[in-house]
Specification:
The longest helix is centred in the middle third of the chain and has 37 residues. The chain has twelve helices and ten strands. Helix 5 crosses helix 8. 51% of the residues lie in helices and 14% in strands. Strand 9 and strand 10 form a beta hairpin. Strands 1, 2, 3, 4, 5, 6, 7 and 8 form an eight-stranded mixed sheet that branches. It has a two-stranded antiparallel sheet with strand order 9-10. The chain is α+β, with helices and mostly antiparallel strands.
Length: 405
């Protein structure tokens, strides 16, 4: 397969690399210690077009292909995966609108993200329904006077504290219902978070049509400190018919479609992190001297660095191959298992490479003087979020078995 980039794709890569070098790398260690949500960095990323990649040409004015999206996310992740996670979450939340919304819904719910910096939240996971989406209890119930009322709680929701809009997957009719739908809940303009706000506590959003949204205190996490995460509770929120995406009974399929779209991007995050771990390791082995020579001159260390390099190249090739396949074909059973395979492989290898970086740097690798500890903490999320490694293996195995049945 030809992995050469087009001029446009190379332009994306060069621009994001410059952005990371100038805007993220100089301050990322200090921001990580403060656990601050870097709004100014996101605003600059939006200005350069690094956010809202899923928005279609009919709304945005131009289209970004899957490989280009993965390249942008990979380069952002080289700087910090918390930043790339929050940026990509907009696409996770908005891709269901891009894929299954009407023209009017695309214009209403996606256009605001083109006009100015904004954040969206993908509301799927619940305390009692992680990988088992059928166990969710958030639901919409039809009202006699028209529309629906939404109730339920979501957890581990990215961008929740700062969200301007929520894409909410929910049961239809009752918590134990058989059908799932997706509704879009915009935040009222007067309740949106100020650009310079630093949210550290819970907040409530009073909805003009009735009901409220309660955003929990931002989570204190092992890693991903520059990405905001919180619980979201919907209490008697009134939903209009025009806020329901597509067929209110096809939410299960819509979730699959969103995750299919997102997997190459999530895998690209892990690839970017793995490259950063490799580069830090290589630089250290060239500079660190023991027994009168650079440690990179020892055969054992060269073998370790060679393994890291080969692993990163294999991971990158897998992710690019899946991205190119997505650009030229609709999702099929074959593509779905490879998309799951790409994120499974890249996530686990990113964690391994960050661990190898810590081991190579030794004592300083275990301190916060170098970024490798942060890289390991951040990498671990991708074996858990957007479907655990166990779920990915189950999906791949099921598809392989179905092909031979």
């Amino acid at each position: 397969m030809d992995f050469r980039l087009s001029d446009t794709q190379q332009g994306y890569v060069d621009t994001v690399k410059k952005f990371v070098k100038n805007e993220i790398s100089p301050s990322v260690m200090a921001l990580d210690k403060k656990h601050e949500f870097p709004r100014n960095i996101f605003d600059k990323a939006w200005e350069l077009g690094f956010m809202n990649l899923c928005i279609p040409e009919s709304v945005k004015g131009y289209e970004v292909d899957v490989v280009s999206s993965a390249l942008i996310i990979k380069e952002l992740s080289y700087g910090d995966t918390g930043i790339s996670t929050s940026a990509m979450c907009n696409d996770l939340a908005n891709s269901v609108i891009a894929q299954h919304g009407s023209d009017e819904q695309r214009e209403r719910f996606l256009k605001p993200f083109v006009e100015k910096p904004a954040f969206a939240s993908f509301c799927l996971t619940e305390p009692g329904a992680g990988s088992d989406n059928s166990s969710m209890t958030t639901f919409i119930k039809k009202r006699e006077q028209g529309g629906y009322v939404l109730n339920g709680a979501k957890c581990f929701i990215t961008n929740a504290s700062y969200a301007d809009q929520f894409s909410v997957f929910c049961k239809v009719g009752k918590p134990s219902g058989s059908f799932m739908g997706c509704v879009i809940v915009p935040c009222p303009p007067e309740m949106k978070v100020a650009p310079d706000a630093k949210i550290r506590e819970s907040r409530e959003i009073t909805m003009p049509g009735g009901g409220k949204i309660v955003i929990g205190k931002p989570e204190e996490k092992l890693g991903q400190t520059l990405s905001n995460t919180a619980t979201v509770t919907f209490e008697d929120v009134i939903i209009g018919d025009d806020q329901v995406i597509g067929d209110r009974r096809r939410g299960f399929q819509y979730v699959i479609d969103v995750l299919d779209y997102a997997r190459p991007m999530v895998a690209a995050i892990a690839v970017g992190l793995a490259k950063r771990a490799f580069d830090v390791t290589l630089e250290y082995t060239r500079e660190r001297k023991q027994f009168g020579q650079a440690i990179g001159e020892f055969q054992l260390m060269q073998g370790k660095v060679a393994d890291m390099y080969s692993t990163w190249q294999a991971t990158r090739a897998y992710v690019y191959a899946v991205g190119r396949a997505c650009d030229v074909s609709d999702y099929s059973r074959t593509l779905r298992k490879d998309a799951a395979g790409a994120i499974l492989y890249s996530a686990e290898k990113a964690t391994w490479m960050a661990g190898e970086a810590i081991q190579t740097l030794g004592g300083v690798g275990y301190t916060n003087e170098y970024p490798v500890g942060r890289l390991w903490r951040d990498a671990k999320l991708y074996e858990i979020g957007a479907g655990t490694s166990e779920i990915r293996r189950m999906l791949i195995g099921r598809e392989l078995f179905a092909e031979t049945a």
